Amino acid sequence: MDKLLSHIFKGILTLLPIIILIWLIKIVYNSISGIVGYIFSLSSQSLVATIIVCILVLVLFFLLGFIVERNKEAIFLKITELIIGKIPVIASIYSTLKEAINLFSGKNTENYLGVVYITLNNYKVMGFVTKEADDFYWVFVPTTPNPTSGFLLQVKKDSVEKSDLSVADGFKKLVSLGIK
């Protein structure tokens, strides 16, 4: 009987973090949907109210973008990232998405030193130089069409062929399977 209760308790403890995460997501979702529902129920009666709500949302996005542009270390962004960084699965997804968005928007190109080609078994493979160390480059060779996975290679500098592609163009080529 003790073994049975022990296994049940371990099963509960195993699922508890997932249940708490789903519960927190549900609370946030219900709060946001309640606010949005209230705003749009007020504005659904009038075209003027709808236009005012749309303008207010655009102003809010503009102000948020302005604050982030002027103060890259905005406190509310740091707090949000700190909270998200504590959630195991969500943190890795968030950091990957944030890095990809920053890369495509041109904000994070200094972390990538360029697009290069590496010859492997008479085939050229496209990669991104992430770090330069002595006589080597650290090159990330992503898989296609999903560039979030791939291989990290340490390659001698003389065996790397530099490309004139920008990082954004290199990612476009990967995601489009070489078509664009």
Describe the structure.
The mean pLDDT is 76. The chain has helices at 2-43, 47-70, 75-85, 88-104, 167-175, and strands at residues 114-120, 123-133, 136-142, 150-156, 160-162. Helix 1 (2-43) crosses helix 2 (47-70). It starts with a helix and ends in a 5-residue tail after the last helix. A five-stranded antiparallel sheet has the order 4-3-2-1-5, with helices on one face. It has five helices and five strands. It is flat, with a radius of gyration of 24 Å. With 180 residues, the protein is of the alpha+beta class. A hairpin with a 2-residue loop joins strand 1 and strand 2 (123-133).
| Mass-distribution shape | flat
Work out the helicity level: 55-70%
User: Number of helix segments?
Assistant: 5
The largest sheet is:
5 strands, antiparallel
Low-pLDDT windows of residues: none
Distance N to C terminus: 64 Å
Mean pLDDT: 76
Total beta strand runs:
5
Strand content: 15-25%
The chain-level structural class is alpha+beta
Series of secondary-structure elements, N-terminal to C-terminal: HHHHEEEEEH
Side-by-side strand order of the widest sheet? 4-3-2-1-5
Rg from C-alpha positions? 24 Å
